[in-house]
Specification:
By secondary structure, the protein is mainly beta. The chain contains 1 helix and 12 strands, in the order E-E-E-E-E-H-E-E-E-E-E-E-E. The strands form 3 sheets. The protein has a 6-stranded mixed beta sheet with strand order 1-6-11-12-5-2, covered by helices on one side. Strands 7, 8, 9 and 10 form a 4-stranded antiparallel beta sheet that branches. The radius of gyration is 21 Å and the shape is globular.
């Protein structure tokens, strides 16, 4: 699987669009039922509209990479701007429920996190079960335990799989390149 080139672009603006995979049924009495369809981790793909202001050399590298992906029809790994983070907080465990408290965590149900517990629970990859509020969320442990407040570090990886829907390369002036591209998230094994 290809990885987007490690150029250091200047993002002159970008947009992120989410489109959850939801079916809605509306009944005559006003009742509405919403159902996600597909796998839980694949229900909210995102589309990024990106603008890269690059040197001519870096622009040529990115352009060649995108042409190669168009030719082989393969997805690629890309870390969008401001995606992914590592934050610290505290946790408690009661039974198999681990409740983690981190101020303004920004984590949603279904996010897959890498969690490093200072002590007690087993470090590893966990899927967020509930997002109680802006400061608290829960995950489920494999083994039951009772653990009082202790420190934890949580990492949300920002890298995802994408395909490039369209791109355009411009040359605003000598030795500079501007590439506008649309990256659509895909879900592949």
């Amino acid at each position: 699987m290809a990885t987007f080139p490690s150029v250091t672009p200047t993002y002159s603006g970008f947009s992120k669009k989410s489109a959850p995979a939801v079916r809605t049924v509306r009944f005559a009495d006003g009742f509405e039922q919403r159902i996600f369809f597909g796998l839980a981790s694949h229900q909210n793909p995102v589309v990024y509209n990106l603008n890269f202001d690059l040197s001519k050399t870096d622009g040529d590298v990115v352009s060649a990479f995108l042409r190669s992906r168009a030719n082989d029809q393969e997805s690629f790994t890309f870390t969008p701007p401001d995606e992914g983070f590592t934050k610290t907080g505290t946790y408690v465990q009661s039974g198999t429920t681990i409740t983690i408290t981190i101020a303004n965590h920004g984590i949603a149900i279904g996010d897959v996190l890498t969690i490093d517990f200072t002590s007690g629970a087993t470090d590893g990859s966990y899927t967020v079960a509930t997002a109680v509020d802006a400061n608290t969320f829960t995950v489920t442990a494999a083994a039951s335990a009772t653990i009082t407040s202790t420190a934890v570090s949580v990492t949300l990886a920002g890298a995802k799989q994408f395909v490039c829907e369209t791109w355009q390369k411009g040359i605003p002036y000598n030795n500079r390149t501007n590439i506008s591209a649309t990256f659509r998230q895909v879900f592949e094994p």
